Amino acid sequence: QVHVVESGGGLVQPGGSLRLSCAASGSIFSPYVMGWYRQAPGKQRELVARISSGGTTNYADSVKGRLTISRDNAKSTVHLQMNSLKPEDTAVYYCFLEMTRTTLYIYWGQGTQVTVSS
Hints:
The protein is mainly β. Helices cover 0% and strands 58% of the residues. The protein contains no helices and eleven strands. It has strands at 2-7, 10-12, 18-26, 32-39, 46-51, 57-59, 67-72, 77-82, 91-101, 103-108, 112-116. Strands 2, 4, 5, 6, 9, 10 and 11 form a seven-stranded mixed sheet that branches. A four-stranded antiparallel sheet has the order 1-3-8-7, with no helix packed on it. Strand 4 (32-39) and strand 5 (46-51) form a beta hairpin. It is globular and about 45 Å long. The mean pLDDT is 96.
């Protein structure tokens, strides 16, 4: 079993910054991908950013240049540095871990609320 736990959400004014963290534990096998999805009220869940074990990153077009994903393989943690936040970034952010061992496994965190508002 794998457990994924997020932290770091909150309320921030437009233009401000937040840093989300996510720690995974349990039966984790490399290589694996970690990243973040988000879901705003009334909208579908969308990929925000993902990072492979080798450090390859992918970002949603809407966050490029403002959000930066990083990871610590030794600690099975991933961080999302969010700068220049906009009201449209308001959502519940979900961390995930994805790995393949004959079958694709995806583990999700419980989500953390990010609210961008003045």
